[in-house]
Specification:
mainly alpha; Four Helix Bundle (Hemerythrin (Met), subunit A); two-stranded antiparallel ribbon
Length: about 170
């Protein structure tokens, strides 16, 4: 059975996609200071998932350009939403086989990212929380762009990712 934290990540991704629903290509390029553009946010989350689940966990970096374009601490960019969404879908699809193998023992295992050592479980939590941070940022940008009818609460967690013990 899939570990509950992986189920939560998948639910979080679906909520993130819901937050992006209705963004135009032009809007995704806008940078409302001091926030990043929505195109950057999409690429940045693809970068993080690639970094954790592909590069450090499996030695694969299928989209090395993400490191310079949207990596943490890099200069601000405004990449196109369509290319970043395509990349995000590819990265998350490639991460799925690994995520499907995560169990309690794997969550407790150590992983080294450069000079930083942590656990797989902490990485999974970090990714989940990072998505929620950027969901809030996306919703703030959409409000500033005068979008209406926006989601105003977490979606159907009771049916899609309810609490369950391990």
């Amino acid at each position: 059975m899939l570990h509950p934290l992986v189920t939560q990540l998948r639910f979080t991704r679906s909520e993130w996609l819901r937050a992006l629903n209705g963004i135009t290509a032009e809007e995704a390029l806008r940078r409302l200071m001091p926030m990043n553009s929505i195109g950057w946010i999409v690429g940045h989350l693809a970068w993080q998932e690639q970094r954790y689940w592909l590069t450090y966990s499996q030695g694969q970096t299928p989209f090395p350009e993400l490191n310079e374009l949207v990596g943490n601490g890099r200069p601000a960019t405004t990449p196109a939403l369509s290319s970043m969404m395509t990349t995000w879908h590819a990265v998350t699809q490639q991460a799925e086989p690994l995520l499907n193998t995560i169990d309690t023992d794997k969550l407790a295992s150590n992983i080294t990212l450069g000079s930083w050592q942590t656990t797989v479980g902490s990485l999974l939590l970090r990714v989940n929380y990072h998505y929620w941070y950027h969901i809030g940022e996306i919703m703030a940008i959409r409000q500033l762009l005068d979008h209406t009818g926006l989601p105003d609460f977490v979606g159907d967690i009771d049916n899609q990712a309810p609490y369950r013990p391990e």
